[in-house]
Amino acid sequence: MKPLHLTIDEFGPYTERQVIDFNTLSPAGLFLIHGRTGSGKSSIMDAICFALYGETSGKERDGRQMRSHYAEADEPTEVTLEFALGERAYRITRRPSMEMAKVRGDGMTTKPPEATLWDRTEAEDGEEGVLIADGKRDVGEAITARVGFTADEFRQVVMLPQGKFRSFLSASSSDREEILKKLFDTSRFERLQEELKRRAREAKGKAEGVQQQLEAILKNRAVESREELQALYANQQAQHEARAAEAETAKQTLKNARKELEEAQQVEALFAEYEKAQSALTEVQTGQEQHEQRKALLQAAQRAQRVAPTFERLKEQEKEHTAAKAKRDEAKAAVATAEAHAKQAKEQLTAEQERQDEREKLQEDITTLKGLVEKVAQFAEAGAAVAAAQEVKEKAKQAEEQQRAAVEKLAAEREALSERLEKTKETAGTLELRAEQLRQAEKALKKSEELATKRAAAAEARTKAQAAAEALTQHEQEAEALQEKADALLQARLDGQAALLARELTDGEPCPVCGATHHPSPATSDAELPDKATLDNAQAAAQEAQSAIPDLRAKAEKARTVVATLEAEVASLSSGDLFDPDTERDSLRAARDEAQAKRDEAKEASERLPNLQEKYESTKQDLTSKEEALENATAAVNEATGAVERAEERRKTLGADVPAEFETAEQVTSAREQKERQLQKLKQSLKDAQEAHQEATNALSGANSSMSAAQEALNTAAAKHEKAQGAFEKALETAGFDDAEAFREAYLPGDEMEALQEAIAAHEKSLTESKGRLKRAKDAVMGKERPDLEPLTAAVETKEKAHEDALNAQAEAKTRAEALAKDLETVDALAAQQREQEQAYQRIGLLAEAAQGKNEKNLSLQRYVLASRLEEVLAMANERFDTMSQSRYTLHRATEVADARSGAGLDLLVDDAYTGERRPVSTLSGGEGFQAALALALGLSDTVQNAHGGRRLETLFIDEGFGSLDAEALDRALETLLNLRTSGRMVGIISHVADLKERIDARVEVSSDVQGSTLRVRSTATAS
Question: 3-class SS at 728?
Answer without folding.
Answer: helix
